[in-house]
Amino acid sequence: MKLTIKVPATSANLGPGFDSLGLALDLWNESTFEIAEEFAVYIEGEGMGRVSQGRNNLILRAAQAVADHVKKDLPPLIVHCTNRIPFGSGLGSSAAATLTGLLAANALTGSVLSKQEILNFATKLEGHPDNVAPALMGGLIVSARSGGQVIAHKLPVTPLRITVVIPDFRFPTRQARNALPRHVKMKAAIHNIGRAMLLVEAFRMGDVNLLAESMTDRLHQPYRLPSIPGAQAAMDAIRSQGAGVALSGAGPSLIAFSPSDSTHSQVESIGEAAKRAFEEAGLAARIFRLGVSNRGAEINPSQGRCAQRP
Fold first, then answer.
1. Pairing state of beta strands 40-45 and 140-146?
2. Which CATH number is associated with domain 160-290?
3. Does the first or last residue of the chain, that is N or C, have fewer Cβ atoms within 10 Å of its Cβ?
4. What is the pLDDT of residues 108-124, one digit of tens each?
């Protein structure tokens, strides 16, 4: 049996929606699974030469977790990965890998887990649902946990132009988490509650002015930005172009939103302004121009058959 799994990149938090909001982006990792005599992972693209090619690979670890959960044997697999999501960038590369492994193992062991169970499982492995929920479901997702269950709801989004600027800076999620305070002020919590509600409406309306105002945050960005050279200057440069901007996930990437009718030169200027700010701080940076993906993860169980949703 041959399986192909496609999973989109995601951007979590989006400013004030800390650990609650996430957006699927039209940038995809694609992995093909074939039963073999021994386990192996081959990487093409992002992460090549940086990630494990054996049983310790995150995809295979997630797959094995499903097999253990349903008490079935996982056959030896060769996995060929075409990775387009940059690693450690704040674009959900680990969530994509986790979902890839879960979906593949679920299909190979008889598809006994429902989509909700896959979401719960992925959240348990990742620690929070803000990346895995949009990667699985597509679009803009608000999520919360209730006991061992994840409540996830898809929200309407008007098309916008998205610019992601990724500095060449290693900022591990653990380090980003450790930068956060153990307690927050009541005013900061109130600020984020109001802004998160406005942000959802801004996405629904496609109102970039409202989005730019509502993407401000007081729970995590003020504590993470100082650790990323040039990030605050890059964010200020993007705002000066009239775009809404936030850290993508925990960073170090910045994600910016501009109107869907923006000209090519207007969109280019957003990325270039941020890139210059990072370069002035001594960091090279890459620019990605993306769109929202309303599609989530897809499974193609064999060549010549139509893609199926989990």
1. unpaired
2. 3.30.70.890
3. N
4. 998 889 999 999 999 99
